[in-house]
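The aim of this short unit is practical: by the end, you should be able to scan a pair of folded records and say something sensible about each. We start with the first protein, listed as its amino acid sequence and then its structure tokens.
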Amino acid sequence: MSASSLETLQRIEDKLKEAYLITLRILSKTRELTEVESSEPRERLNVEIEENVVLLDILKREIAEAILIYIIRYQPLGRDFRKVQAFLDVLYDVYRIGRYCREIVLVDRYVKRLSDESLKDLRKPLELANKACESAYHALFEECRQCLKQVQEIDEVVDDLYLSCLKEMGKEDVLPSFAVARVLVLRHIERIVDHAVNIASYSD
């Protein structure tokens, strides 16, 4: 691999890290919605999340274009091609995590506030989602072998929480708004953690 190719690939990786850190920021601010009750700071959180989602979308397009140009210019093979392909897959996972956070914000806005006492049990799974995504970052970019296992363990816990929620819903004929909000948010959290598992698995 030429020096020019290595430099270009490093710039792509740096941009991917930047996009990932934005996603972690979005996820952290989404979790804050479970704790903040006052209208003004909640509105600030909504605005900050939306601004970061827009920024993530811009970065996604820039990185995808950079990857395409890299493939056309250097025509990587073998290990180099697999690395570029992994970057493209991780980019999709990172982007989807940000979008799921946006969906959680919409539930908070239009169905039930996540800070409501009836939804306090969502704080733990959102914290777990944060931990899973942080650990996936360390697994991918810092080769943390233990982090992959941590993400997989969190995935099992979140899957169980989501399945339990579905079983509870199945017992009811009519669902109150907080129950609808809970299952929607848990579904998005379950998908977020699935993407974290995908990301961490590229370190294996």
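Turning to the second protein, read its sequence before its tokens, just as you did above.
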Amino acid sequence: MIISISTVTKECSVFIIHKKIEYYRSYIDTDMIETLPMIINEFTNKSYLSELETLFVIRGPGYHTGSRIGISFAKGLAANKESNIIYSDSLEILSYKYPEDGYITTLLKARNGIYNFALFERNKNVLKRLSDNELVEENELLKRIKGIVIGEGVKYLKKEIINNSKIGEIYYPDAKTAYKFFMDYPKGLK
């Protein structure tokens, strides 16, 4: 069994593959401490957890408390098992969701007026990281944005930035996309 978990934004999502059957659930603005076990219990029973091979966890950047909940929950599931926990970057997962070639600016809200930011480029379906993850103040974003702007941070941007940028979808770094990303980029992006 494979389980992928994302809790780094307001969306809590879990993707499970067991015996070639896929299960996926996501909830927005929910209590993650209650929701994660509920989702796991919905699709598995305790005997299935003994078949757990790999856990994929998005660890951030994002909401610090949500990240800690997801990581702690994964460690609890993997306790006393021979399963691997593989961590990934939420901004890489966001960039992977956008299918078109070109520059991709990923944004997740960090706190009031400050965003988690990274720049990527997709060329012929190959994704490349162009910057490290950074905390960027909103008044600096116009100078840094290239190409399409995606991510949960989009919905918090000021009109000036929205009017002068190519705004994409309000994506969340979800567990199903994280699993697909891991399959295509097992060591992350360089």
